[in-house]
Design goal:
By secondary structure, the chain is of the alpha/beta class. It is built from three helices and nine strands.
Length: 155
């Protein structure tokens, strides 16, 4: 709160209790500009290694159907390699035409995210929308050993 001091004719100081909001507005505008500049920088741009998961494994069906995307981008249904042009027909024959079959998709760590999405698009075009991503099970963070301090070698 700002106060204005004014002298009267009899040299007594009189206080004025008016709020000067101009500095407050200036501060708000500066904060607004800071947030407008910082917001685009807050987007996720982090290198990640996604294949590990600590989630509780879901129960496996009796006969799971695995689709594997290898590091050389070849596809395999079960243990059999499948060429991309014959992918939909081969998948239909393996599922007996049941489009509600859950497909367990495994991909090598070296496969690019765009290539994985391309494989998921192949599944979608073939009519299979129930896709489960498969990853390695890892220990939860509370059971994992503490990382070594920076600049030291782990035992």
């Amino acid at each position: 709160m700002a106060s204005r001091i004014r002298q009267t004719l009899d040299e007594d100081l009189e206080e004025s209790h008016e709020i000067n909001v101009t500095p407050f507005i200036d501060v708000i505008l500066v904060l607004l500009i800071i947030f407008m500049v910082a917001a685009p920088l807050a987007t996720v741009d982090v290198n990640v290694d996604l294949p590990g998961s600590t989630a509780t494994p879901a129960p496996r069906p009796e006969t799971p159907l695995f689709l594997t995307l290898k590091d050389d981008l070849t596809l395999a249904i079960g243990n059999d390699s499948v060429p991309r042009p014959a992918f939909a027909a081969t998948l239909d024959s393996r599922t007996r035409g049941d489009k509600q079959t859950r497909i367990f998709l495994r991909a090598d760590k070296a496969v690019a995210y765009g290539d994985l999405m391309g494989t998921m698009n192949l599944l979608r075009r073939a009519g299979y929308l129930k896709i489960a991503l498969v990853g390695l099970e890892t220990a939860p963070a509370s059971d994992a050993p503490a990382p070594a301090p920076a600049g030291t070698a782990a035992p």
